[in-house]
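Bench notes, afternoon.
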Amino acid sequence: MESSPPAPPPSRGSLWFGPYVDESKPWRSRSLLPLKPNDTYLAIRDGSGKVASFDKNEVETFEKEVRARANDLDVSVAVPAYDRWFPVYLMPEPRERGDQKPRTDGLWKALGLTLLLAWFFISPPRQLPIHGPQAKMLILLALMMFGIMPLCSEAVHWWENWRDRAPDRNKRRTVDLILFDRWLGTFSHVAIKVTLILLAAVYLLQAFSGGQSFAINQIIDTLIGGGQSIWNSVMKAALVKPRVMAGEWWRLITAGVMHGSILHIFFNGSAFYFLGRVTVAMVGSAMLGLVFLASIVGGSVASLYLSGGRPSVGASGGVMGILGFLAVILVLHKASIPQRYKVSLLQAIFIMTIFGTLGAGFIDNAAHGGGFLIGAVLGVVLVPRNERVWEYSTPKLIQILGWASWATLAAACFHVTQLLLGWNLY
């Protein structure tokens, strides 16, 4: 008997997530999901656009491939019941939990690693190649990134699963989380990426422009613990307070494009990318540049007058400013950000509070606080009060100031470069 051909895809989706792609928010628009070809039965498309097609006799193979790629958000799938490509993560329907208790495996693992790193922070092992404040700072960064941050994420996930077992709400949150991230990817992030490249290039110059030995142990010590080359670069271009007071005001900006270790720049760079993408989606790249630069300067000024005579370095003031700016958006427009991202922003504020408390002896909390305050003030002054913040149209003056801010940051990176390399261009 000859089997009948597959039915043509319907004009509206009939999969479980279809009702939640309801056009009520820009990230819930069906336009984010591209139309699939009419002759496609089952197919998988990876992030590069490569498509693997399956016919009606290869359903098991298709399902096996889907399971293998279930956690890859760059992979899309096509099925007969839906007329568009959609993220593979949305393929299985979330189950109703009922009275089933949420799993705690991840929570206990994160707690164990946090306690271990906390012990190392309290009593650093003598076997470490670096000692003193550098070792404490290194362990604290590791504690934050690999301990406290995962622990907070696991705790929030466990609490949400325990508190909220309504299947409809969980399904909507799942759709929001996946499609919001996809929506963020539709915006241009050229300014963010170029800035990250410049920050990385400046750090490499800090680490390797001092003419030090290139032995492997020396390289590791320089990248992870700082080393003499990093310290020399700080003295040349970072926030050295007496030199700022003597007239080198440009250090208020150049300090924000320099870092003290590879973990330091990784921590700041990751936060800048995560927070920056959300800011660009809400209010545009120009506003992000203005907030980032103003917060760097505000953090440097606060450090200059409130943190004593220690030199200061890092983009943390700018990152905290973006966090403060988004916190204002969170207060003014609660419905404009999905629940998981709102929790992530609150989690970031909580984590930075712990970070500043534990590292008060060697972290410039004045710069962090000053940057956050400037970002929050800019949010209060510049963020629109209307309900749809994503429809914000950046005023011409803000666009000019914003792009001038990006240009200023690029000029600061160039200025640091010529100082570290000894170029006499002025």
